[in-house]
Write a structure and sequence with these properties.
The protein has two domains: 14-234, Type I PLP-dependent aspartate aminotransferase-like (Major domain) (Aspartate Aminotransferase, domain 2, 3-Layer(aba) Sandwich), CATH 3.40.640.10; 236-343, Alpha-Beta Complex (Aspartate Aminotransferase, domain 1), CATH 3.90.1150. Helices cover 38% and strands 12% of the residues. It has 13 helices and ten strands. The strands form two sheets. Strands 1-7-6-5-4-2-3 form a seven-stranded mixed β-sheet, with helices on both faces. A three-stranded antiparallel β-sheet has the order 8-10-9, with helices on one face. The longest helix is centred in the C-terminal third of the chain and has 19 residues, at 236-254. The two termini are 19 Å apart.
Length: 344
């Protein structure tokens, strides 16, 4: 084994570390003042008036569901290709999600399948994870009377959909940007602002006697997490530009192969001609290269859900995910590409 190259690495540099350390030296980890500043910066970055931070993307999705008044009478639809935490977040509020297939031309939630699962009882809610940096058309769902929660954990950018009721994100170490662990939620409509402030009040004090909103989510963030996020937002374009440079190098080395075409460069993901992604990924890992096939992300297999998921299963062993992060060098790309060419 010549090298060890991780599949993912959080996008931060010395300025992020220095920001976090400076906040820690203040000796106040409560996250009050710095949190308000970070939430303001995030809202400004997203082009909205309001945002809230959480300590996980899971908690952000929980808050979005509760703020939308989703309950056991409602219909919550999610794709089989997404992080298991999406499934668990829905379950955590007492709702069993309806898991549907993805599109034939891209591994994102199928509009046709979601329409088939609509119900006349309760609200029809759809969570749209914008997986792998790709973008699904949110407007299509909105125009067909879905309440849309957009999940940009893997496509973090300011281009959020105006047709999403709420947008959630994750800042865990495997994502484009990190605050150690953390998540966020933004809303365009004023009606969500006070509700989210209640749910996510870290002290449970100011709103403790609000009987109309008895639910609370304890998900505080610290000063040093918020300081790190602020520095990340300031470096956003630099991080994206470097990742885009790595994508160009991959394309050149691999001869402009069939691959996913994301709006945001989250990973470099080949679409193989044969069902061999798991096999090739295992070979690459033996060579010290972090690589994975899509198959491990299928919810219907993880949770034993019956149904027709032929598109997801086609994608599952065709998509080969290669490293793409700031820790990579152009020489790393040459080495990875050399190994991939031998086994693709």
């Amino acid at each position: 084994m010549n090298q060890i190259i991780s599949h993912s690495y959080p996008g931060f540099d010395d300025t992020s570390i220095e920001s976090a350390v400076s906040a820690m030296r203040m000796g106040d980890f409560s996250g009050r003042q710095t949190m308000r500043l970070a939430e303001g910066r995030l809202a400004s970055f997203m082009g909205v008036a309001y945002s809230k931070l959480t300590n996980t993307g899971f908690a952000a999705l929980q808050a979005a569901l509760v703020a939308s008044n989703v309950n056991h009478c409602d219909n919550v639809i999610i794709p089989t290709v997404t992080c298991p935490s999406v499934y668990h977040a829905v379950r955590s509020i007492g709702v069993t999600p309806i898991v549907v297939d993805v599109e034939k031309d891209k591994p994102l939630i199928s509009f046709e399948q979601a329409i088939r699962k609509k119900s006349t009882n309760g609200k029809n809610v759809v969570i749209i994870p914008q997986m792998f940096g790709l973008t699904q058309d949110v407007k299509l769902f909105y125009e067909n009377d879905f309440l849309v929660i957009e999940d940009i954990a893997q496509r973090f950018s300011p281009s959020i959909s105006p047709y999403a009721e709420l947008t959630v994100m994750s800042f865990s170490p495997t994502k484009l940007f990190t605050m150690g662990y953390g998540g966020g939620i933004v809303a365009r409509q004023d009606k969500y602002h006070s509700r989210l402030s209640v749910f996510l009040d870290p002290d449970h004090a100011e709103y403790s006697y609000d009987h109309e909103i008895p639910f609370r989510i304890h998900s505080p963030v610290s000063d040093y997490q918020c300081a790190m996020l602020i520095s990340q937002l300031e470096r956003y374009q630099k991080i994206i530009n470097y990742r885009s440079k790595l994508v160009e190098k991959y394309d050149q080395e691999l001869g402009y192969p069939a691959r996913l075409q994301p709006e945001v460069p989250f990973r470099y993901q080949l679409v193989l001609e044969y069902d061999s992604a798991n096999k090739v990924a295992a070979i690459l890992r033996e060579s010290g290269i972090g690589a994975w096939a899509l198959g491990s992300q299928l919810l219907h297999q993880l949770f034993g859900i019956e149904g027709n998921y032929e598109n997801a299963e086609w994608w599952s062993n065709r998509v080969l995910s290669l490293p793409l992060h700031e820790k990579l060098t152009l020489d790393n790309i040459c080495y990875i590409s050399d190994v991939v060419r031998r086994y693709r």
